[in-house]
Write a structure and sequence with these properties.
37% of the residues are buried. The protein has helices at residues 3-12, 109-114, 122-132, 153-156, 170-178, 205-212; strands at 16-20, 45-53, 56-65, 73-75, 100-107, 119-120, 140-144, 158-159, 162-163, 167-168, 184-187, 216-219, 232-236, 246-248, 251-256. A hairpin with a 2-residue loop joins β8 (158-159) and β9 (162-163). It contains 6 helices and 15 strands. It is globular and about 65 Å long. The strands form 4 sheets. The chain has a 9-stranded mixed β-sheet with strand order 1-15-13-5-7-11-12-4-14. The protein has a two-stranded antiparallel ribbon with strand order 2-3. The chain starts with a helix and ends with a strand. With 257 residues, it is an alpha/beta fold. Helix content is 19%, strand content 27%. It binds oxo(2-sulfanylphenyl)acetic acid and manganese (II) ion (MN). Manganese (II) ion binds next to β4. Oxo(2-sulfanylphenyl)acetic acid binds at residues 32, 34, 69, 75, 79, 191, 193, 204, 207, 219.
Length: 257
């Protein structure tokens, strides 16, 4: 049997499960809040056009609006100044093969339960590899923190000095790119960077280093606790927005049961 015929029969028989890593687009889902001198990200909005009524007797539909960076979303290289001249750096230009790939899940939930500003370092990644094997080139690396189980104010976790949420260190992102040649890095938090990432060097290191290297980000992921450390395949295809810097999307993982 061909590889794809095998895949199709495994899906039909339930030997491969499709797990949804996406939050529901809802006006109440939090968006990132930047310092007030900067422009702000728009929440999701939905406006009814008709609902089987005089505006459209046999149909219901809505107009929607949001930021490119609202809800579960994809970050393209052109999102950051370091990636402004990266070839094929906008969502409409990224080669489609980059939207499907193996996924490694690094469980940091024990650490983040103790420290909401936890930074994942190369030592954490190397400890994970000692158990699960090396991260393959082209992988998506997802940082599990269980942050997606938070709701309301606890999700952004704003304090006087800004948001407090975990993320990767600059050294961890450099390691994933230079030593492992990943495709992208994903997180359950509102940004790929830690809440206090503006104080790191460089500021917002995940954004700066990933996008400068032509790599991608995924934010506001859910259900990472349902993924194995290795062996799943991720599907993350952003909308084809002309010159788009990112896009809300449905993120799926295929997992062998
Ligand atoms: C703009 C400025 C800072 C950050 C972000 C956007 C994001 O996290 C994002 O959604 O890409 S940290
Ligand atoms: Mn973003």
């Amino acid at each position: 049997m061909s590889t794809l015929a095998n895949l199709a029969s495994a899906l039909a028989a339930g030997r491969i499960e499709v797990i949804d890593l996406t939050h529901t687009l809802d006006p109440d889902f939090p968006v990132i809040i930047l310092p007030p001198e900067f422009g702000q990200c728009a929440r999701f909005r939905m406006e009814e056009v008709s609902a089987y009524d005089h505006r459209g007797p046999a149909w219901k539909w809505n107009n929607i609006s949001m930021s490119e960076h609202t809800g579960t979303h994809f970050d393209a290289p052109s999102h950051w100044i370091s990636g402004r001249d990266v070839p094929l750096g906008s969502v409409d230009e990224i080669p489609a093969e980059n939207f499907v790939g193996p996924v490694c899940v690094i469980d940091c939930s024990a650490e983040t339960a103790q420290d909401e500003d936890f930074l994942m370092t190369p030592a954490h990644i190397e400890a994970w590899e000692a158990k699960h094997g090396p991260i393959p080139a082209g992988a998506w690396v997802l940082m599990r923190t269980d942050w997606s189980k938070r709701s309301g104010a606890a999700y952004l976790n704003m304090a006087q000095d800004g948001p407090h949420s975990p993320g990767p260190s600059a050294e961890a992102i450099r390691f994933l790119i230079d030593a492992r040649d990943i495709t992208g890095f994903g997180t359950e938090c509102v940004g790929t960077d830690a809440g206090q990432g503006m104080h790191l060097s460089p500021p917002y290191p995940a954004h700066f280093i990933l996008h400068g290297a032509g790599k991608y980000g995924l934010q506001c992921l859910a259900n990472l606790d349902r993924l194995p450390p290795t062996g799943a395949v991720l599907i993350a295809a952003p909308l084809k927005i002309k010159n788009g810097t990112g896009s809300p999307l449905r993120v799926l993982a295929m997992v062998e049961t």
